[in-house]
Amino acid sequence: MRIADLISLILFNLGRRKGRVMLTAVGVVIGTAAVVVLVSLAVGLQKNATEQLWGINDLSRIEVYPNYSYEMEPKVMGGGGGGGSNVSGTLLTPDAIKQIKELPGAEVAVIHEYLNASMELVFGKLHGYGGITGVDITDLSHLGLQAARGSTELHKGSIVVGANFPRNFYNPQARPDDPPLEPPDLLDQTVKLVLMKWTQDGQEVRKTVNIKVSGILAETKGSEDYSIYMSLDEVTAFNEWSLGRRINRNKDGYAMLIVRATGPDVVLDVADQITALGFQAYTPQTAVEGINSFFTIMQIIFGGVGAIALLVAAIGIANTMAMAILERTREIGIMKAIGATNHNILSIFLGEAAGIGFIGGLGGVGLGWGVSAVLNVLVKSYFAGQAASGGSIPPSVVTATPFWLPIFTLVFATVIGLISGLYPALRAATLVPVDALKYE
Prior knowledge:
By secondary structure, this protein is α+β, with helices and mostly antiparallel strands. The protein is 49% helix and 19% strand. Helix 7 runs parallel beside helix 10. The longest helix is centred in the C-terminal third of the chain and has 49 residues.
């Protein structure tokens, strides 16, 4: 039997029992649609989670920290003195930083040092607060930061601030009935940096420095939005003033090092090399992989729930094909009498079962795609309203259907139909022609 004749016969047999085929295919439609909707929901949740993860905009970034360890000193027996602790570990010394910069895959390494003195910013009548970070670069664009206004370049006596930093200012003389304070426009303005420390007898010592705001960074939705960036040398000088001594980087090290790999595909390898050197290394790529692993498991679970409905539909297909054999026993006998082989009969019934699965799968893919689109619109509208009233960020997507999902579910539904018809088809193929012709 030619392939074209086989397909024509299969379509004819399905067409003459339209009602039964459609009712059987409904189960496949429901199961396939469930798989599409549930997996699309899991993919949408994964996409939304990765988009809103802090630091996800730069997957090449690695944060390197010293690996401190504490050792307790033994208590002196009978001496009245208590035990203490010694701080040791792997410090970010200049030699260590040089070693990290030479690692394969490390493109840029930027030192970060925090201002450890108590501080306050004064702009006219307004007072502000924030964390000052010193970096050993003259342009923050090397960290992947962009300026919304002004420049990302750092010069002596200047600072570059995050997008939301102006919100940290307040009026200490404000009255309860005063209107909310508008964030001041700090670009190209001079603010006073007031540093404070205390002597051993409790006397406060202040130091005031005038600094110019040379740039305001574009919003990153990360800690950079509230940061103040200054040159490393100036922050080091302020810390030495606060400590009352010079800082020896070979003994004290630096607070943090930001390493940018040549690409996201090598960032985990670079982080592993840094960890092997004894430092603590964190990269957003690690969080992304953890999220992807979690949602991959969720996709499997959701897809499995939908597959249960397909298995139930498979029982319906098997039942339909078994009933078809009883109704067409004489027809099978006639086909065998005129020369049809067992393989021909097997192919016909398997083709009909697979056809039911294909028809149901096609309808289920369309239904699932439509439900996913409607669900996406409705849920996004709901959360957009909630976000507007609560000030939160609405999800960018609720469901997302990857291109491979409709193809996979359609093939899966067809294969389920094929497997479901296997037993009835074998039974039909093995009928004895004489017995089949005598069947009433």
